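Whether sequence alone determines local backbone shape is best considered at the level of individual chains. When preparing material for the folding task, we compiled for one chain both its residues and its backbone structure tokens. The sequence in question and its structure tokens are set out directly beneath this paragraph.
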Amino acid sequence: MYLLGYDIGSSSVKAALVEVASGKCVASDFFPKSEAHIKALKEGWAEQDPSDWWQHLKEATASVLKESGVNPADIKAIGISYQMHGLVAIDRDKNVLRDAIIWCDSRGVPYGEKAFKELSPNVCLPRLLNSPGNFTAAKLRWLKEEEPATFEKIYKVMLPGDWIAMKLTGEICTNPEGLSEYMLWDFKENAPATFLMEYFEFEPSIFPEVKPTFSEQGRVTESVAKELGLAAGTPVTYRAGDQPNNALSLNVFNPGEVASTAGTSGVVYGINGTVDYDPLSRVNNFAHVNHSDTQTRVGVMTCISGTGILNTWIKRNVAPEGISYADMNDLAAKVPVGSQGVTILPFGNGAERVLENRQIGCCINGINFNIHNRCHVIRAAQEGIVFSFMYGMEIMKGIGMDIKRIHAGKANMFLSPIFRDTLASVSGATIDLVDTDGAAGAAKGAGIGAGIYADNNEAFGSLKVLEVIEPAADRAPYLEAYSRWKNELARKLAEI
């Protein structure tokens, strides 16, 4: 008996087949093999064609079925993880009306900020736990204002995972976690935020039906079964945005537990057992996958857009040509903690919520031509990313998060000893590195939703900790470097 998980990212689409009994991933693959294209027609815009996600899903499905040799009839449930905050609009024939406006697109910022001001923080924060900001509802308002002819044709709007589920099953639905990504979940009422729909002048009928996160949300149709090589009738029983799903994949379900990722963007995502918020709305709050009327589970998230993308930029433009990431880490290790005064503010991939949506770009400070070389810049980039994480974690601590242990997959930036040692030492938290990923996690989420696993502890009991990173015995150099970094950030913000 097997479970199939999909992870619909902006860089690639991954599929994973998990054996129920052992909890092991028996096959996985992703497409495309080079990073998927993001269209940027204007500064601050980011769009993708949903049909590309579907094509990559088909390729990944074919690969894992071939690699594993699994009989499709033995796949008992499907789970979906997806890039958060995207906007897919369809007409009554379920045709996509325009390219999807994806997570890193910032065109919705003015509309979200206006809503926050006019509705007032005293209304938005206790009910949404956030400013409407640049979330999906604000992007939809942009569409209503700037492309009214397209808006008039809308039958339903969906998140990327909702659209993939619709393609698989023909059914259109979402869940509380999904609506909270729109910024359309009212935590006071534990229901859709109709007050924000009314403010933005949205008809509630354009939003999908709300179903529980762990539940049957449709079954694979006959035509799709033939197209993908799956068995008709296979149920879709779980879906969640990539960061809540990453937390699920690391068995992070309860208050005080924290998950982190550091791919193209970087995230620290912790679980709060109370409904609370940052007065400046600098961190994101979402309904976690196990949030309910009777159990408060709010995912508190700080997101840094310029994480792996900064490291990649350094590799292309600063490191010696043809060098590997491991070799870059070796070069950075030649430099002491703090990079001998070089600091990098890693905010070159768009406005950051942690900075109240202010654009400051990426800044390199403190270079002395007689002392510093590329090794200093490489290390300072990794340290700058970590310090941006810590900046957000301090805000999370201010609303009740007690971060003592961080769970992370051993992947991306967490492969770097400098990155993870710096994070452990500046935060004082122990890091557990685990062998898992979003697609495998989504598969196990489907197992919970289908009732194959009794609960999350059974589903994730097979998780193995690969490595434990403890804070340095002497944290002073890390804290000193972080203090210098914060001073540079404060100076830059004062210029705006």
Notes: The chain has a mean pLDDT of 95. DSSP finds 17 helices and 22 strands in the chain. Residues 374-398 form the longest helix (25 residues). The radius of gyration is 22 Å.
